Amino acid sequence: MSPALGLLVFLGTLLYAYAEALVKLLLPAKRKTVRGELVLVTGAARGLGRATAREFARRQSRLVLWDIEAHGLKETAAECEGLGATVHTFVVDCSKREEIYSTAEKVKKDIGDVSILVNNAGVITAADLLSTQDHQIEKMFEINILAHIWTTRAFLPTMMKNNHGHIVTVASAAGQFVTSFMVAYCSSKFAAVGFHKALTEELSSLGKDGIKTTCLCPVFMNTGFVKNPSTRLGKILEVDEVVKALMEGILSNQKMVFVPPQLSFALLFEIRSVQSHKEVVLTTVITLKITPC
C-alpha cells in the first residue's frame, strides 16, 4: 500500500469513527433491564470480575460468583450484598471441566437457571514461546477458552429452551491483534473471540434471537495480574473504565465491545512497509508489554 493510499484509508476510518460516535450520541441504543436476572460471573474474586459483579448488584440482579480464590470471592460477595444483592459463591477451579460441570449442576438445582453468563476468568503468562512452560500453555487454554465452552454447554440448554439469555465473553485486544512474547496467550484469546463469533452465528441460525452475545476486547488494563504494569505508549486502562464499557455493551446487546472504541477501526487500517529488508507490519494498535485477561 502506498503512503498516499494509506493516508486516505486512515482518514476514512477516522471519519467513520467520528460519524459512528455521533450517531451513538444522538441515537443511543435502547437499554434492557437486568433486574431479577440470575447472573453468573467467573473470576469474580478481583479485578474486572469483581467490578462486573458490583455493576450487576447495583442493577438488582441476583448473583452467582465463581473463583478459585476463596478470600477474594468472599470480599466481592460482601461488597455486592452491601449493594442489596442476593449473592451465592462457589470456589471453582475453571481449569477443571468436571468441576465446572458439577458446580453448574449445584447452581441449577439449588439456585435456579442462569440467564446471564459472564465468562471472565482468565490467566496470562508473558514470555517467548520456547520459554513458556507446557503447563502454562495448557492452563491458559483451559481457562481462557475451554472454560468458556464448558460453562456455556452447562447453561445454554435452558437459555435455548426459554429463548432468553446472554453469554458474555471477556477476551482481549490480543484476540484481534498479535504481540511478541505472548504467542500462547494471543492464541487462547483469538480462540475466545472465535468462539463468540461462531456461537453468535449458530444461535442466529437456530432462530434463538432471544439469546444475546457480547464479546469484550480491551487493549490493556490494570487487572492486578502484573505488578506495576506499564506500556511504551498510551495509558493503562483502569478497571472501572473497562467495566463501564462492558455494561453498556451488555445492556444495549452489543456483539463486540472494544476499549478504547477506536480499536474497532484499527481492524480496518493496516500499513505494510519494508524496513531494513524486513517486512514490518504497523497497525494503529499500540505494541504492549502487558495485555489484559
Automatic annotation (TrEMBL):
Give the Gene Ontology MF terms in alphabetical order.
Answer: estradiol 17-beta-dehydrogenase [NAD(P)+] activity
A biological process (GO) of this protein is: steroid biosynthetic process
What is the E.C. number?
1.1.1.62
Specify the signal sequence span.
none
Q: What are the record's GO terms for cellular component?
A: endoplasmic reticulum; lipid droplet
- The main location class comes to endoplasmic reticulum
Tell me the superkingdom of the source: Eukaryota
Q: Which InterPro entries match?
A: NAD(P)-bd_dom_sf (IPR036291), SDR_fam (IPR002347)
**Broad EC category:** oxidoreductase
Alphabetically ordered keywords of this record? Endoplasmic reticulum, Lipid biosynthesis, Lipid droplet, Lipid metabolism, NADP, Oxidoreductase, Signal, Steroid biosynthesis
Task: Cite the SUPFAM superfamilies for this sequence.
Answer: NAD(P)-binding Rossmann-fold domains
Q: Where found in the cell?
A: Endoplasmic reticulum; Lipid droplet
Q: Which reaction does it catalyse?
A: 17beta-estradiol + NAD(+) = estrone + NADH + H(+); 17beta-estradiol + NADP(+) = estrone + NADPH + H(+)
Q: Which family does it belong to?
A: Belongs to the short-chain dehydrogenases/reductases (SDR) family. 17-beta-HSD 3 subfamily.
In Swiss-Prot or TrEMBL terms, this protein is called Estradiol 17-beta-dehydrogenase 11
Q: What is the source species?
A: Phasianus colchicus (Common pheasant)
